[in-house]
Every structure is written in C-alpha cells, then in structure tokens.
Inverse folding.
C-alpha cells in the first residue's frame, strides 16, 4: 500500500486540548488503513488512494476535538472497531490573566465506533458522558476482541467515573461491567483475557493483573508480591512510579511496559520478573504508544516527551522530570533472551503498524500538557513515517546518546540499556567526588540470580567506562549520590 504524499505531515490545526495528541490507532485491515488524528478528532480511512474522513459528527455537534490518545482499536471480520473520547462540541475557556488556559469537559464523551471496510460506513455503537465541567467518564483506552464469546472487551482507567473492564455487544452496542478495577490495557494469552490493575490518578501505577477466563467467565486477580518490584527485579533495585504504558503477550507470558521498564508475568509458572529498561527516573517511558507482535517477537516504543507541563512553579520537581529530554524515542525489539534498539526518533512515537514489507509510524513533536496548558489548537507537528522492515531488522542499531540527570537518579538504580549490536558503547561520568559505580548485566526473562554485577571506581573529574565487554542489558547505580555529576550513555 502507498500513502498519498499529502497525508504524511499534519501541522498544528484547530483542536482544543492540552498540548498535542498524535496519530493513534494505526491499523491495516482488509486493504484499509485506519488511524485517528488527535486532537482534531478525525478518523481517517484510506483504501486504494481514496480517503474517507469521519469527524465524529454522530457523537455531537462541531467543533470537535480529541478522538483517541491511547490506541483503542481492534478488528473483527470486515469491521474495524475504534474507541476513545471526544469533545462534541469542544469548550475552550480562553486564557486567564496569568497566561494559563483551560477547557470545559461538559461535552466530553467516551465512544466506540464500527467501520465497515466493505461498505465504507461508520456506525456509532456507544457513547457516554457524565456532563461535568471538570470531570469525565472513563475513556476507552483499549479494545480487545473476545473470539470465544464474540464480544468486545473495553479497558477504562483515565477518568473519574465508570472505570474498570467492560464487555460490549458489538451488534447493538450494549455494555456490561465485568470488573470494577480500573485498567488501561488488555491482551489475550491462551484462553484468558489479561488486564493490568492500576490505581487511577495523575500517575496510575500498576499493582497487579486481572484475568478473565473466556470459557467459564471467571475473574482472577493477582497482585504483585512487592509493589516496588525490588524482590524480583533482575538488577535487585526497586522501581519508582511504575506507571502503566502498554502491554503485549507472547511465550505464554504477559509483558507490561511501565515507566522504568518491563514487568513480566509467567502465566504457567505464576512467577514475576522485572527488567529495568530506559529508567532515568524522568518522564521517559512507553506511554501513549503501542506494542505489537512482529516476527515472533515484540516491538515497543519508549518515548522521550509524552507528558509535559507549561504553567507551573519553576522549582517543581515533577515539572523538571516530565520536561527533561533524556534522549530520543526508541523502538525496542524483544526476542528473549535479548532486546535490541532498532530505531531512534524524535519526541514521541504514538502508534505503529506493519503494512506489508513496511512499518508505518505515527509521530508527534509535542507532549500532552497539563490541566492549565490548554490551547485552541493541537500544538504539535504530527507525521506518518514509513520504514522498510528488512532494513529495520537487519541493519546495525542507530547511534544514540542519553543524558542522565544525576540529581534525579542520586544513588538509585538507573539505565537498563540494551547493548546488543553496539561495538563501542561507553558511559561517561564527570564526577564531583570519588565514588563507586555498580554495573548490572542481565537479559530478558532471566532469573535474578543470573544477573552479573561489577563495581568500578570513579575518580573526581572525567571518567570513561568502556561497556564493549557487555552484550546484554546494563543498568547502573552510584554508591553515593553525586547530584552535580554529568552522566552520558553513548552508544555507537
């Protein structure tokens, strides 16, 4: 399939919300490419160079904004089911004297639609709003088809009411709550549907998994034995704010991608492990993106700038962490026991999908911003980008550098950098004191006892640590905090 060149780039356009949305829900099905452009609230359907754009007029009157920001989409037969949320109409409040701005949520609706690829028609299946100015009903963040009972399973975490896991009759749109435990994502494993359990709020952290048996309808909830993940972390360190990003299923295991790394649950052995990945104790993480199965492995994005703040006190620690750009966004390919970096891009990768021998990616230059950072436009530049799969999977990994904020990591574990394919990886530390650096090496799915640990002495001044003898994933810890240190991870 070839995309018309005019569809490759989307500059800022009208769509009242916080910062930028992105290109979400990329799905190629029955020769049709679907994606939602947020915050413009446009669902695009492309087939044979013909394009149909649905602007959510079935939900409510214009002007619209929103659409989807979590990639809620699945396919059944000739249908594409897509969900999310939309303002209909959007209510932009304008700027306050201090320059801050807000929107009203009175007309914010959660939705599920059906698109018929044969007849080129969109049908609204379900919509819901609680019609409050500062609160909204749970957004649809994931759609999972249940092939045993021929129904849709819906995840709802982002919101103030009606959160949990729901089932939907895909013919008449009726819904029924299955679990009152909020969840952002869900995947199939064997004859089970698995959903994470997250605490709702600004930073929804994961504390377990919930399983729906698709045969007998029973729900089982399994809590993690240690919510800091330290007892089963492969480098022995705990994890701060394990906020949910996305999920995948393979090898009869559940892969939950979080801020700080990857939580793995072995369904057959009922055991947990945590693999630290790209943990800089910042806003960097696998947020508002997808994980897909590709070539028997798992492809996932870790994003550099998904959430940010504009109008806040200058000394806010949270703002510093969210707004700090550690390095580029990366595509990570996991084929146990290894993980390797395939691609490095800009601010964030919001969605991707295989289309024949190409990988199609949606990107955005600006993050979702804070509650007082509303604008009447989507302020990001969004782009559709194609990459050849044969080159992506066979060429050496791209050169990457991460600037690690030492005042964030202090004496905590950080990193989790896959070194596979790099010939000259180095860690550069400009230290302000003599210190020791612990280096941990591990692989995906290995047991904690298999991780290796080395200790390197650091001298005040410039230190260059050669990492070329390591081939797995490496994380680090300073024995003593050195908040003024400059730490760079250079991969070549």
């Amino acid at each position: 399939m070839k995309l018309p060149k005019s569809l490759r780039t989307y500059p800022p356009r009208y769509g009242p919300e916080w910062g930028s949305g992105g290109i979400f829900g990329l799905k190629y099905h029955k020769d049709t490419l679907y994606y939602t452009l947020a915050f413009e609230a446009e669902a695009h359907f492309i087939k044979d160079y013909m394009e149909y754009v649905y602007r959510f007029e079935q939900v409510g009157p214009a002007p619209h904004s929103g659409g989807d920001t979590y990639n809620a989409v699945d396919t059944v037969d000739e249908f594409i089911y897509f969900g999310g949320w939309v303002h209909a109409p959007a209510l932009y409040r304008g700027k306050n004297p201090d320059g801050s701005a807000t929107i009203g949520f009175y007309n914010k609706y959660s939705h599920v639609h059906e698109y018929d690829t044969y007849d080129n028609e969109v049908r609204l299946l379900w919509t819901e709003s609680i019609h409050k100015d500062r609160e909204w009903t749970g957004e649809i963040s994931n759609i999972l088809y249940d092939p045993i009972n021929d129904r849709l399973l819906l995840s709802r975490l982002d919101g103030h009411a009606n959160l949990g896991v729901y089932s939907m009759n895909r013919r008449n749109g009726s819904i029924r709550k299955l679990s009152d435990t909020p969840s952002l994502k869900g995947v199939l494993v064997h004859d089970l549907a698995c959903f994470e359990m997250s605490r709702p709020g600004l930073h929804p952290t994961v504390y377990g998994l919930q399983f729906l048996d698709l045969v007998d309808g029973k729900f089982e909830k399994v809590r993690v034995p240690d919510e800091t993940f330290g007892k089963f972390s492969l480098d022995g360190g705990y994890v701060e704010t394990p906020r949910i990003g996305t999920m995948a299923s393979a090898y009869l295991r559940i892969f939950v991608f979080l801020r700080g790394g990857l939580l793995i649950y072995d369904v057959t052995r009922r055991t947990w492990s945590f693999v630290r990945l790209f943990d800089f104790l910042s806003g960097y993480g696998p947020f508002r993106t997808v994980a897909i199965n590709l070539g028997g492995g798992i492809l996932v994005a870790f994003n550099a700038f998904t959430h940010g703040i504009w109008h806040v006190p200058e000394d806010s620690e949270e703002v510093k962490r969210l707004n700090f750009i550690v390095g580029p966004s990366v595509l990570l390919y996991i084929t146990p026991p290894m993980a390797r970096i395939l691609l490095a891009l800009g601010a964030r990768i919001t969605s991707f999908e295989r289309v024949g021998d190409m990988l199609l990616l949606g990107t955005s230059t600006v993050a979702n911003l804070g509650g007082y950072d509303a604008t009447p436009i989507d302020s990001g530049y969004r782009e559709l980008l194609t990459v050849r799969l044969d080159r992506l999977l066979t060429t050496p990994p791209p050169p990457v550098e991460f600037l690690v904020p030492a005042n964030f990591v202090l004496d905590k574990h950080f990193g989790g950098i896959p070194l596979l394919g790099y010939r000259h990886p180095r860690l550069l530390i400009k230290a302000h004191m003599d210190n020791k650096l612990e280096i941990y090496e591990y692989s995906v799915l290995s047991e904690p006892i298999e991780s290796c640990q080395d200790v390197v002495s650091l001298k005040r001044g410039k230190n260059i640590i050669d990492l070329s003898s390591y081939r797995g994933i490496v994380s680090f810890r300073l024995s003593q905090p050195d908040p003024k240190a400059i730490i760079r991870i250079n991969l070549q």
